[in-house]
Amino acid sequence: MTDAKPSRIKRKLTLWTLLVALVAAALAYLRCGAGLGPGFGLGDRGDEHGPVGSAASEPAAPHRCLLRISARGITVDGKAMERAAAIDACKRAGGAELVEVGDAPEGKLEELRRALAAGHVPFVLREPAAPAAP
What we know:
Largest sheet: 5 strands, mixed
Distance between the termini: 100 Å
Oligomer: single chain
């Protein structure tokens, strides 16, 4: 058996440790290159759909028309309309927010709800906004 010197063993151990650390750092750089430098594009950085976590990657909220029923009739986003035209407008918009004002004729809200359901228009029933305090 050969008698190895402790300094030579220590040197080999240090060199192997550095080599393993260098390989690990290179793999991390190639896989996650966006963090500390440009990388080589091998990692998933979210470039296909915009930056990761940006508002561009989130789905847009669906637009709904504001459908109000009162004693004066039906309004869609502030414009007076007949019931059939209002349902068509909300269908094109992708849905409706249905609000009944307190002076609406009895039963008209239920008729409008049935017409929206029959026209396959998704809607949510919303309470009217409370008047501002004096």
